[in-house]
């Protein structure tokens, strides 16, 4: 698929889901975004949000989270699943922030990737939340939809991201993730996509193969 066709798909979906591509928000708290994204692996946004208030009331900044008792932290994050690994990553990343970045979340891809438990998806989400897009966050929705529509044939999130970066202009990189997540939750679901209702089905490789 070429850039023109990809951008046409983006425009159509943006008209259908305007809330997913609204005005650029003010920069969110990057530490809060970082913590929430680490916790989001293999769970729902609702589960993460359900513990955020308690978590930040106890550990409001990198210094306090770096000094957290592991067992206490595990009890707090347990509802999100994989709590042993998530607690370990939160503490290790917070210690790195304190030791190497003065307690601040760095806003460059290279620095974020140096933090324990942080991969490209997490780094992209943090950067996008602060208007510093250096890529496109490829989660399960973006990975599935990009391949299903035919925007990428990549077999890894990194390969899919590179294909998407080549297709879309930089000024929309930060909107692709939210737009595809919305489309994936409403119509282009994993098991039973609602192709008959999809506004971009005529451009979709999967639909044309049915």
What would your notes on this structure say?
The chain is an all-alpha fold. It has twelve helices and no strands. The protein has two domains: 3-24 and 136-209, Helix-hairpin-Helix base-excision DNA repair enzymes (C-terminal) (Endonuclease Iii, domain 2), CATH 1.10.1670.10; 30-129, Orthogonal Bundle (Endonuclease III, domain 1). It has helices at 3-16, 30-39, 45-58, 62-66, 70-77, 83-101, 109-113, 120-129, 140-149, 157-167, 173-186, 205-209. It is elongated.
Count of runs of 4 or more consecutive helical residues:
12
| Bulk shape | elongated
Structurally, how many domains make up the residues? 2
**What is the CATH superfamily classification of the largest domain?**
Hypothetical protein, domain 2
Mean pLDDT: 94
Distance between the termini: 19 Å
Number of strands: 0
The sequence of SSEs as H and E is: HHHHHHHHHHHH
Rg estimate, integer Å: 18 Å
At a glance:
The chain has helices spanning 3-16, 30-39, 45-58, 62-66, 70-77, 83-101, 109-113, 120-129, 140-149, 157-167, 173-186, 205-209.
């Amino acid at each position: 698929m070429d850039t023109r066709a990809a951008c046409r798909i983006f425009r159509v979906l943006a008209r259908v889901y305007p809330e997913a591509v609204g005005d650029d928000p003010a920069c969110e708290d990057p530490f809060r975004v970082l913590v929430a994204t680490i916790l989001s692996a293999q769970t729902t946004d609702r589960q993460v949000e359900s513990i955020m208030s308690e978590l930040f009331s106890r550990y409001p900044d990198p210094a306090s989270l770096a000094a957290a008792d592991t067992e206490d932290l595990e009890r707090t994050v347990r509802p999100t699943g994989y709590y042993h690994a998530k607690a370990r990553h939160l503490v290790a990343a917070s210690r790195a922030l304190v030791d190497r970045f003065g307690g601040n979340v760095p806003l460059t891809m290279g620095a974020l990737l140096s933090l324990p438990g942080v991969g490209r998806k997490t780094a992209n989400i943090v950067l996008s939340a602060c208007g510093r897009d250096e890529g496109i966050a490829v989660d399960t929705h973006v990975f599935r939809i990009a391949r299903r529509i035919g925007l990428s044939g990549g077999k890894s999130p990194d390969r899919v991201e590179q294909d998407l970066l080549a297709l879309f202009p930089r000024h929309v990189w930060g909107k692709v993730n939210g737009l595809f997540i919305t489309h994936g939750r409403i119509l282009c679901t994993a098991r039973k996509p609602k192709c008959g209702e999809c506004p971009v089905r005529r451009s979709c490789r999967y639909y044309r193969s049915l």
